[in-house]
Design a protein that fits this description.
It contains 6 helices and 11 strands. It is an alpha+beta fold. The strands form 2 sheets. Strands 3, 4, 5, 6, 9 and 11 form a 6-stranded antiparallel beta sheet that branches. Strands 1-2-8-7-10 form a 5-stranded mixed beta sheet, with no helix packed on it. Helix 3 packs across helix 4. The radius of gyration is 20 Å and the shape is globular.
């Protein structure tokens, strides 16, 4: 009996090549102005197929236009206490920066906003997983950093949601860090700027509950965003959009996906959302995760 129990504990988890999830998209209210993104849209639930990303061929370069825009990178962190905010803000950030430099060839990596730790079993609503398809960056992030470096006021032509880029840029001292490295507005203007999200399961076991779905950026259009901006307000549903997840994501795996690319022909990044997998076992541990939103400045020659 003991041998049978041990075998059961060691049995590999079984997954199918796809699952389904209910996703909260945005929908324009009848008769409302699409430019007024904070008042004119409401949530609309759709049940979609979510495909197993582990079955996809690996992209040669996550930054290529032909790339799906996301990848899982093997990485064993030195962090043992994922509740130690001070260590996460220092040691963990440094670890992730090193991974991103190796993955992309970036010259500089900055933390765009403070790290975000989420727990499915918390009472704190701000720390719960986000069940809302969105992207964390607007398509004017580079311009917003240029304004900050020049100490100029934001462009008055920016849409309501694009104005949120000002808050993103000002959430940490990235412009000051750029200046300290000699990245003036003139020099930054000549560089490719990329925003990447990194996402990690911080639980002891492979993730089964509340996984993260990520869009293949090749199936997203800028017009899919509320008011024409794929940002935090939400995503409009359109046939052809495709979403993926990594079943059983382990703590030793780092999910990386594109949120902004100044070289892209249009701002059509990897929108993402938590979802409830109907195949989740009843005894699956609640999700624990950490996310970093990073700003990369590529070498001048790239």
């Amino acid at each position: 009996m003991a041998d049978d129990a041990a075998s059961a504990e060691q049995a590999p988890m079984e997954f199918t090549d796809r699952t389904t999830g209910v996703f909260n998209f945005s929908r324009l209210k009848e008769g409302c102005d699409p430019a007024n993104v904070f008042l004119s849209y409401e949530q609309e639930a759709h049940t979609l197929e979510v495909h197993d990303a582990r079955l996809l061929p690996e992209d040669a370069d996550i930054l290529l236009p032909s790339s799906k825009g996301f990848a899982v990178v093997p990485h064993v962190s030195t962090i043992t206490d994922w509740s130690d905010e001070e260590v996460l803000a220092s040691t963990y950030c440094d670890e992730v920066f090193a991974v991103l430099k190796e993955l992309t060839g970036a010259e500089h990596v900055f933390l765009g906003t403070p790290h975000v730790s989420r727990r499915q079993d918390t009472e704190d609503q701000m720390s719960k997983p986000l069940y809302h398809l969105h992207n964390d960056y607007t398509g004017n992030i580079k311009e917003a950093y240029l304004c900050a470096l020049r100490e100029e006021e934001p462009d008055q032509s920016w849409t309501m949601e694009e104005q949120l880029a000002v808050g993103f840029v000002n959430s940490l001292d990235v412009p000051a860090q750029m200046k300290a490295l000699g990245l003036t507005a003139e020099r930054l203007a000549e560089r490719r700027v990329i925003a990447l999200n990194t996402w990690r399961n911080t639980g002891d076991e492979p993730l089964r509950s509340c996984p993260l779905a990520v869009a293949d950026k090749r199936t997203i259009k800028s017009s899919d965003g509320c008011g024409g901006v794929v940002g935090r307000v939400g995503l409009l549903r359109r046939e052809g959009q495709q979403f993926y997840y990594y079943p059983g994501l382990r703590r030793e795996e780092l999910l990386v996906f594109i949120g902004y690319d100044s070289d892209a022909k249009e701002h059509a990044p990897c929108a993402h959302s938590a979802f409830d997998d109907p195949n989740t076992p009843a005894d699956a541990p609640p999700r624990q995760s950490i996310e970093l939103r990073c700003v990369l400045v590529m070498p001048a020659h790239s």
